[in-house]
Amino acid sequence: MKQIGLRAHDLGTFNTIEDLAEEISKYGSSIPIQLALKKVLKNAPNAEDYTEQFIVSVRETLKAKGAYVGVFGSYINPVHPDKAARDAELRKFENHLKYANLIGCPLVGTETGSFKEDNTYHPDTANPKVLDLFYRSVERLVEAAVKYDAIVGIEAVSKKHTMSTIKRMADLVEKFDTPHLKVIYDPVNLTPWIGIPEADGSNRGVPSFEAQKDFFCSALDAFGSKIAAIHVKDYKLDQNGFKIGNLTAGEGVIDWPFLFEELRRRNIEVPALLENLTVSTLQKTLSMLHTY
C-alpha cells in the first residue's frame, strides 16, 4: 500500500500545529508528512527548548486529523567550516533524535552539507578532508541515534553537497552498516546538474527510458535496502542544459510510474513525500501518484 504524503512547509507557515493539521486533513487520511517545525510553525521553539509535552501535543494533534510524521526534519550542515557553528548544528540534530520516537517517527532527516557557511556550492566540498569531516559528524550522530534508539536519515544532493553521487552514498552505508543510519532517497537531487546521462554519455532534454532505468536501478542496487523515505518531485533542463530541480511531480521528465513500479518490485514500502508541491493542484497530483 502506498504511503504518499508531503513536505508540510510546502503548504505554508502556520500559527499553530492545529492549523497545520486542519490543512493536511483536506487531502485525505493516514498522510505521512516531513515535519520541520521551524519551517512550518511561526513560533516553533528551538530544538534545545523542545519538551515532552510539546512534542506529544504535536503528535496527537496530527493524529487526530489523520496525519503522522514520516520524516522528522532537522536539515543541518554537518561540514560547516566553523567548528563552533558545526557543533551547534550537530547539537540541534541530536535534540531531534532525542524526541524522535516521542513524535512517532524515529527517522530524523538531513542533507549532507557544503564547505561554505551558507550551505551553497563550494569547490572544496568534494575534497577528501571534507568527506572525512562529514564521516566524523555522522559517527557522532549515529552514536546519539543509538542512545535514543532513533535513526539518522541521510539525503544526497548532486554536486553541491558532501554526499553527491550514488557511489558516495553506497560507501556511506557500507561504512556505517547499522540500523541507526538510513537513506532518504531523492532521485531528482541525485540527478547530475546536466541531467540523467545516456549510455553513450550524452544528455537529452528528455532522457530515454533506458537511461532512467539504469540511473534509478543503480541507486536502488547500491542502497535500496537502506531507504527509509523517498522524496517525490521533478526536473527538466533549462535552455543552457542545466537542471531545474524544483518542479512538482508530473511537470518534468522523471518517469515516476516506472520508479514506483520498481520500488514495489523490490518491496521498498516507505513514505513517498511530495516536495515542491503546488497547493492549487495538490489534490490532482496526489491522485495521480496513487495511480502509479
What report would you give on this structure?
This protein has a single domain, classed as Divalent-metal-dependent TIM barrel enzymes (TIM Barrel). Helix 6 packs parallel to helix 8. Strand 4, helix 5 and strand 5 form a beta-alpha-beta unit. By secondary structure, it is α/β, with parallel strands linked by helices. The chain is built from ten helices and ten strands.
Backbone CA Rg: 18 Å
Low-confidence region ranges:
none
Roughly what percent helix? Answer: 25-40%
What is the percentage of strand-forming residues? Answer: 15-25%
Shape: globular
Order of helices and strands: EHEHHEHEHEHEHHEEEHEH
Query: Might you state the CATH topology name?
Result: TIM Barrel
CATH class: Alpha Beta
User: How many helical elements?
Assistant: 10
Strand segment tally: 10
Strand arrangement, major sheet:
1-2-3-4-5-6-7-10
Give the mean pLDDT. 97
Helix/strand-derived category reads: alpha/beta
Write the CATH homologous superfamily: Divalent-metal-dependent TIM barrel enzymes
Main sheet: strands, sense, barrel: 8 strands, parallel, barrel
Q: Count structural domains.
A: 1
By CATH, the architecture is named Alpha-Beta Barrel
Determine the N-to-C terminus distance.
11 Å
Topology record:
Layout (H helix, E strand, L loop, with lengths): L2 E5 L9 H8 L6 E5 L1 H4 L11 H13 L2 E7 L9 H21 L3 E5 L16 H21 L2 E5 L10 H10 L5 E5 L1 H4 L18 H15 L3 E6 L1 E4 L5 E5 L8 H10 L5 E4 L7 H9 L2
Parallel strand pairs: 1-2, 1-10, 2-3, 3-4, 4-5, 5-6, 6-7, 7-10
Antiparallel strand pairs: 8-9
Helix pairs in contact: 1-3, 4-5, 6-8, 8-9
